């Protein structure tokens, strides 16, 4: 079933990207553009990710050490007041 009509992205493609580490709608958008045009699919992507489409997220939620550590650091937005180097 299609999740994103604008770019023809299916539920399976979202799951495949999640299996590779894309665990947020923003990361899915970076991987395949889903959610970047009309935005109508973002809630569906969130629902898929929330229902276990991202096994790495589930491991992190269970306290598995080292899971997602580097990715979270690289993808985190700078804190307010932080200066660029």
From TrEMBL:
InterPro entries for the chain: BFD-associated_ferredoxin, BFD-like_2Fe2S-bd_dom, BFD-like_2Fe2S-bd_dom_sf
Keywords assigned: 2Fe-2S, Electron transport, Iron, Iron-sulfur, Metal-binding, Transport
UniProt keyword annotation of Cell cycle present: no
Entry keyword Coiled coil: no
Domain BFD-like [2Fe-2S]-binding: 2-50
Top-level taxon of the source organism: Bacteria
GO molecular function term, any single one: 2 iron, 2 sulfur cluster binding
Family statement drawn from the similarity comment of this UniProt entry: Belongs to the Bfd family.
Protein name: Bacterioferritin-associated ferredoxin
């Amino acid at each position: 079933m299609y999740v994103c009509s604008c770019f023809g992205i299916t539920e399976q493609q979202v799951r495949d990207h999640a299996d590779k580490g894309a665990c947020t709608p923003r990361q899915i958008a970076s991987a395949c553009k889903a959610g970047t045009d009309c935005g109508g699919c973002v809630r569906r992507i969130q629902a898929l990710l929330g229902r276990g489409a991202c096994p790495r997220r589930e491991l992190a939620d269970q306290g598995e050490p080292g899971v997602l550590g580097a990715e979270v650091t690289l993808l985190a937005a700078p804190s307010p007041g932080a200066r660029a180097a």
